[in-house]
Amino acid sequence: MKMKRNKIQGRKTRMLDRLPFFRKIARKERRSARRRGRGRSLFHEVRGHGELDREFHHRLEREQFESLLSAMRATRIPDRLAVLDVFLSTENHLTLAELAELMREQAPELCDRAFLAETMDLFCSCGFAHRREFDGRDASYEHQHLGQHHDHLICTGCGRIEEFISPEIEREQVETAARYGFHPLQHRMEIYGLCGECMARRAPEQSLARAAVGERVRVCGYEENCPDEVRKRLADMGLVPGAAIEVLNSSPGGPVIVAAGDSRLALDGELAANLLVRHCCHW
């Protein structure tokens, strides 16, 4: 087992030797490793050290991008590498406007929107970035990490985008595709909702008028000063304490459309404001 492990480590070490910017460091590290009596390359030392790991991958991706641009006979290669440096400096999803703002701080001569849009298209076509279009938002760009797939949680309250990785979900998708005889090529999952911070700021009970589209809620009562005729109208619609409903649509100045059982109901502003509901997370 020890001999097999050493062979694998040796192959990884030789792979690093093919990276021009890494050869001298790798040779020096192997000499040091032999003196220490270990066969580990700097790659192994870097893993698990977040800052060094990011720096290593940043340098690797920069060299790969420069090589691709040269092969494509692209123009303004140094300027595009400068944009890549700024893009890789953050893990946030960036719109063109946000990227332009970062460039204005670090390289103001490169904040031209047309040039940035063209460069981001190059990032995407070369496999360094993904262009994402989340509902109701400007297009944004994120890093494309090779060999890794992640999905997104998008908060409709504050706009926060959270990435997550779930091997269980990935495995279930592959198994589901196989059951249907389907060969999957790519997929994306976007879960819209409210983040923990937004939920913490909400009262456990609130009026239906404040519920977000897509929320599943349960009626828990009526506002204290709710007029009797409004209570009766709500009760006649079946919206009594304990009733489960889903908010289908809600817009300022318009009715709130909800699904209650097999029925779709439209509630005007007065009805929605007087109906108290509790989100399914608090049932």
How would you sum up this structure, described in words?
- The protein is an alpha+beta fold and 283 residues long.
- Among the domains are: 1-47, no CATH class; 149-196, Dna Ligase, domain 1, CATH 3.30.1490.190; 203-282, SH3 type barrels.
- Helix content is 45%, strand content 19%.
- It is built from eleven helices and twelve strands.
- The strands form three sheets. The chain has a six-stranded antiparallel sheet. A three-stranded antiparallel sheet has the order 1-3-2. The chain has a three-stranded mixed sheet with strand order 5-4-6, with no helix packed on it.
- Helix 4 runs antiparallel to helix 5.
- The protein is elongated.
- The two termini are 54 Å apart.
- The model is unreliable at 1-49 (pLDDT under 50).
SS-based class: alpha+beta
Sketch the topology as an H/E string, one letter per element: HHHHHEHHEEEEHEHEEHEEEHE
Task: Give me the oligomer status.
Answer: single chain
Distance between the termini: 54 Å
Instruction: Evaluate the radius of gyration.
Output: 27 Å
Q: Name the CATH architecture of the domain at 203-282.
A: Roll
Unreliable parts: 1-49
What percent strand? 15-25%
How are the strands of the largest sheet arranged? 7-12-8-9-10-11
Q: Within the CATH hierarchy, at the fold level, what is the topology of the domain at 203-282?
A: SH3 type barrels
Give the name of the CATH superfamily of the domain at 203-282.
Answer: Ferrous iron transport protein A (FeoA)
Number of H/I helices: 11
* DSSP, total strands: 12
Largest beta sheet, briefly? 6 strands, antiparallel
User: Averaging pLDDT over every residue, what do you get?
Assistant: 80
* Helical content (DSSP H or I, runs of 4+): 40-55%
CATH class membership of the domain at 203-282: Mainly Beta
Dominant shape: elongated
